[in-house]
Amino acid sequence: MRTVKYLTLAWLLGIPACENRHQKVVISPEPRAAQARVGVYDSRAVAVAYCDSDHHRAEEQRLKEALEKARQSGDADQIRLADRALWESRKQMHRQGFSTYPVDNILEQYGQELDRIKREDNLAALISRWDAKALDKHKDSARIDVTEQLVNMLTSDTKKRQGALEITRAKPIPPAQYEEMLKKEAGKHY
């Protein structure tokens, strides 16, 4: 009678069963779903590596050309706007390289490469280690450090890679403190 119960239960659950009544049917629970994984990176290292990239050099060149064109036109308003755009771009790079500001504007330029990293490492998302809100949304996920992969994606120069990764050892400048530093610099600039 016991064998019939096991066989019936196995049949209902779709588990192959043997009619040998000395063999017990073991019913194992569903395999646990694989734990979600997120890639975590130090945004400062990404920013420092990006400074050497073709993307950044092209953007910097575009801003310099716009400033030169404005200077040639002699239009004071255009000169001020172009100079301000170049200054703001550099400020943003400094914020990202030395504090904890997001680098989304950098990473969005590398969609295919990021998709490849996520696919190869089976990652649900890539999140800056400084983004507490985003990390909290994935608090049950395994965290995989992808900083080095992102740095390698941005620059092939060994010394630049090393410099970008070294910044991860230093404590970042808090954003409020960094903004104060920038205000002092802006006073010198304008």
What does this structure look like?
It is a single chain. By secondary structure, the protein is mainly alpha-helical. It folds into two domains: 1-30, no CATH class; 37-189, no CATH class. Helices cover 61% and strands 7% of the residues. The protein has ten helices and three strands, in the order H-E-H-H-H-H-H-E-H-E-H-H-H. Strands 2-1-3 form a three-stranded parallel β-sheet. Helix 2 (43-50) runs antiparallel to helix 9. The longest helix has 23 residues, at 76-98.
User: How many beta-strand segments?
Assistant: 3
The portion of residues forming beta strands comes to 5-15%
> What is the oligomer described by this structure?
single chain
End-to-end gap: 92 Å
Low-confidence segments: 1-33
User: Taking all residues together, what is the mean pLDDT?
Assistant: 82
Radius of gyration: 27 Å
* Count of individual domains: 2
Widest sheet: strand ordering = 2-1-3
Give the % helix.
55-70%
Number of discrete helical segments = 10
Structural class: mainly alpha
Question: What coarse outline follows from CA principal-axis ratios?
Answer: globular
Short description:
This protein is mainly alpha-helical and 190 residues long.
